[in-house]
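To: structure subgroup
Subject: Chain for Friday's discussion

All,

I'm putting the inputs and outputs inline so they're searchable in the archive.
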Amino acid sequence: MLSENKKLSWGEIKDCLTTWRLYVHYIIYMGAGCAVASLSLFSPTIVAGLGYKDLRAQLFTVPPYAVAYVVTFAAAMISDRYKARGLVAGVCCLVSGLAFIIQAALPGESFTARYICLIIATSGTFGGLPSLCAWVGDNVRTSTAGSLSTALNIAFSGPGQIVGVWIYRKQDAPFYRLGHAINAAFIMSSGLLSLGLMLYYKRLNQKMVGSSQQRWIV
């Protein structure tokens, strides 16, 4: 960011509310929010399908999040070190989407494969979040505008989370093919939009060659 202002001007507010590329950021985060909200809804049925009950069942819902913690930390470090927000977020979202597609396509009782896909989907979903949160704030020109755009980015995850809660219907248990398919569509779209926005920022940067303008974070 170029400067730090103590107060948010109306011009900055208008920019955050009318700039189309920021809405791409918001829509990307909304797609990820759908998966975040729904992971805890179907994971118990997978653990139950593996034959675990009571305390052991609770215990086996932990590994997907433990693996996701490591993946998220590594993805955030890579994203920050190489300033590759869009690439890291896009790859994570696409990997998560692929895991949801496999979940939807797996035959009935393949609970071990479903559990592996759960780990991959959880890791991919959470792995992209730090990059997406940082990316939108990186690509506005003041810190105050960054705070507003980041807030709007997070707010847009709300509708996605509402969708994520309602797509896993009781009558679809325990395989939830419809929910997995919708989740895959949402987060795959987020992945593709992330890569597309990355290419857009790269193109803008190419036009700045030889100028002193601040480069966009890709």
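Points worth raising on Friday:
Confidence is low (pLDDT under 50) at residues 1-5.
The first helix runs from residue 10 to 18.

D.
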